Amino acid sequence: MVKPAYILFAKSASQDKDTGSFSIFDIIERLQLTPLPKPADPNQQVMVLFEPMRIIACWSSETDEDRGHEYDHEIVAFLPGELSSILGSAGKFRFQAGMQNFRITAVFATPLPITKPGILRFQSKVRITGAQNWQTQSYSLPVEILPEQPVSPSPSGTTEKAA
Predict the structure, then answer these.
(1) pLDDT tens figures, 114-138
(2) In sequence order, which residues have a C-beta less than 8 Å from that of residue 98 and are 6 or more positions away?
(3) CA 20 to 30 Å from 109, out of 10, 20, 53, 56?
């Protein structure tokens, strides 16, 4: 039976092509979000700088029998206060010969539509292809909504946060 090894939410990761060593950078343990102020001019376009985030889930095999199966996998996000989930990735995999871990990464390349404070939960699910039941592991983090910050126009015509 495969077992969860770990699951993390991070800004970036890298793998050494020679050794296969995997490094995870800027692990996220909580989110503090600030609502965007409404522009004074309704025709003004608002731009948001966004960094893609990733969920990294690792599953471990214990026996040669585990490594003989094909597996389905999914990574989903449950937003605070919502019952439905957002699919981050889905697919199939097999453990390679002699390999004991399989790592799945889902990159959320667009902002998650978080509108409420609470708990943001990511779930990695794995099952033998064709089986009914999933094995799961979860990563939960608190989401705090901070007060809106006023903006003021700068001389160049862009907007800046008021001091």
Answers:
(1) 889 999 999 999 999 999 999 999 9
(2) 67
(3) 20
